[in-house]
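We read letters as residues; the fold follows as tokens. Both lines appear below.
***
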Amino acid sequence: MIFDSHAHYNDDAFAADADEILASMPENNVGRIMNACAALGEMDRILELCRKFPFVYGSVGIHPEYAEKPGSSAEAAIKSFAADEKILAVGEIGLDYHYDEVPRDIQKECFDFQLSLAGELNLPVIIHDREAHKDCLDIASAHREVTGVFHCFSGSREMAREVLGLGYYIAFGGSLTFKNNVKTVEAAKYVPLDRIVVETDCPYLAPVPMRGKRNSSHYIRYVIDKLAEIKNTDRETIENITFENAERLFRIGGKI
């Protein structure tokens, strides 16, 4: 079975058919899905999907594109949603310097706040890092009590070493299959299999040969095939190991 460790089925791209797509997952060998949150306003829909589909889990957090100065209302909301048994992580949190629409100091303050909250709640985190590698690592390093996953990893082999040193898992998605993406392939070669999870980040980042289409967990097999090629093993081995890794990451069934 496959564990898609990062998806967004509450996204508007799935407004018309999320239920239909999710209902088809068991027959497509997808056994678990983590539906990640980007903004607190998404949580009602995320919880609705979690309740309707037993294999769907959720996270709660504020994406850097929606970052704001921390306050008591955000803290109360995150704690309230995190109390639900289907919410297994704080995320998607982190830093995004690509567009710089939110001032970097606000992003960093919000990220630091949510890492502290994850430590208090004893939950793993899902980290978004786009063109902010050093600052992400510096802030994560200040919260050694917290671990989780760097999702949609785009860093170098050297960065992967630092992420692993902090106790985090590393998630590879569609970008691993992109032509000439040498840096990500080299990182995937370096990261040991017991620290890798796979993801789609759907509806975004569809893998080759589906690039440009709306992504879904149906296409995660292309990521798995690419990873099997990189690791010189077979698809079943990658499926089994990354499934177990994701269960440990999100502490499903008491696994740590």
Notes: The chain has one domain: 2-254. The first helix runs from residue 18 to 23.
